[in-house]
Amino acid sequence: MSHIRYEIVEHDGGWAYKLGDVFSETHPTHESALAAARDAAARQSISGETRPIAYQDKSGRWHEEVAQGVDRPEVEIEDPARGR
């Protein structure tokens, strides 16, 4: 099982959650960014369809594989402002 971690951070004059180097939209408050991260985390647990996918890695190489619709990641929300 894969693992992803959303982090709540100050961003662009407000708050956002981020995954790796990718930021969500900016939210006006810490609480609204946290709520959005919780919503995104909840959506990660929803099963989908098994289907072929293609993606490009950091070196620019393309990969093709079959993504299992029931293979859902374990999600964690890190909130340094709250000590979590």
Q: Would you kindly provide a written description of the structure presented here, covering whatever features stand out?
A:
This is DUF2188 domain-containing protein. InterPro entries: DUF2188. Pfam families: DUF2188. The structure is a single chain. The chain is an alpha+beta fold and 84 residues long. It is built from 1 helix and 6 strands; from the N terminus they run βββαβββ. It has a 4-stranded mixed β-sheet, with helices on one face. A hairpin with a 2-residue loop joins strand 2 and strand 3. The chain is globular and about 40 Å long. 11% of the residues are buried. The model has no long low-confidence stretch (mean pLDDT 88).
List keywords for this structure.
84 residues; 4-stranded mixed beta sheet; two-stranded antiparallel ribbon; 1 helix; 40% strand
Q: What's the average pLDDT?
A: 88
Uncertain regions: pLDDT < 50 for 5+ in a row? none
Class based on secondary structure composition and strand pairing: alpha+beta
Shape: globular
Number of helices: 1
Oligomeric form: single chain
Rg computed from alpha carbons, rounded to a whole number of angstroms: 15 Å
Order of SSEs = EEEHEEE
Strand order of the largest sheet: 3-2-1-6
Strand content: 35-45%
- The CA-CA distance between the termini, in Å, is 22 Å
- Helix fraction, binned, reads 10-25%
How can the largest sheet be summarized? 4 strands, mixed
* Strands, total number: 6
SSE blueprint:
Layout: E1 3-11, E2 14-19, E3 22-23, H1 30-44, E4 51-56, E5 62-67, E6 74-78
Parallel strand pairs: 1-6
Antiparallel strand pairs: 1-2, 2-3, 4-5
Protein name: DUF2188 domain-containing protein
Pfam family, one: DUF2188
Region (Disordered): 58-84
